[in-house]
Amino acid sequence: MRRLIQKGLVPNTPTRFDLAISYPQWQGSGRSANIPRGAQAAAEVCGSYAPPAVVPLAGEGEAAGGINRWTAIIEQFRNAQALLKERRPKRLLTAGGDCAVDIAVIDYLHGLHPDLTVIWVDAHLDANTAETTPSGSLHGMPVSAIMGHAPAEMQALLRHPLPASRFRYVAADTGDEGDWCFRDANGLTWLDDGEDIEGPVHIHFDLDVFDPAEFPHLAYTDGTLSIDAGVAIVRRFASQLVGLTITEFAPADDQAAADGSKVIARLCDAAHAPE
Asked: Is-contact 47 92, C-beta < 8 A?
């Protein structure tokens, strides 16, 4: 867990977070080949910023209810809920895994912080449902899930649906018909330049938001955001952060994992910007 510190990539710094969980789920991704390598590298970085803990995984999984690898995903979801219930962090740093890891995290944090705002930094809207998904991949559904439209078995375990008024997109402009229909039906909006957010903030940061010319360690390359702009978003809300989740790191080899980890460290450093 300290390998990246020893290489001088990240500092062993005081933290705003009570816990750093490694949630290395890959089964929700439609292009999962390099997600495990990325999840491990992200966990090594995040684990230097707060006490680490690991969500156990559950094998390959089988499809059910139109969701690929569902049996593993729902077991891992239960494992995450159990871990959070046991450790009870008030401020949480999460290293994914695919985007769907944030369903359990956001439901937990919203239970602690009823006035929570979620800022969704992502190239994709991620707002399909089990009924509208064209792919069957859960990482295309977490936005609808956190708002009360998760697959039925998961929905029964969720307690704190997020109102659309407490949600903002950043840089998300890629979606299919189901995504845009959910966005329109729920009035989801984008974060305005200079907009003030009152109260606690959780940032979901999917690395595929980045321009692949700058950050090529991705399974999906639809993003256009610069690294500096992404870091600035985290720094902007640092004093309000109760959660930061980093997902979808997909480095092709160990050298790519080391290179991309430097950017993850920049995001974590930004979360610790002085108030």
From this structure: no
Partners of residue 241 on adjacent β-strands = 201
Cα R_g (the chain), whole angstroms: 17
pLDDT of amino acid 1: 34
pLDDT tier, 122 (very low <50, low <70, confident <90, very high otherwise): very high
Q: Are 63 and 70 in contact (CB under 8 A)?
A: yes
Q: What is residue 201's DSSP assignment?
A: E
Q: What is the pLDDT of residues 183-232, one digit of tens each?
A: 999 999 999 998 999 999 999 999 999 999 999 999 999 999 999 999 99
Of 169, 172, 64, give the one whose Cα is nearest residue 120: 169
What residue ranges do the domains of the chain occupy?
Answer: 17-270
Core vs surface per residue 56-93: b (16+ CB within 10 A) or e: ebbeebeeeeebbbbbbbbbbbbbbbebbeeeebebbb
Tokens of 88: 């009870």
The superfamily (CATH) of domain 17-270 is Ureohydrolase domain (3.40.800.10)
Phi, psi torsion values for 73, nearest 5 degrees: -60, -45
Select the more confidently predicted residue: 176 or 273: 176
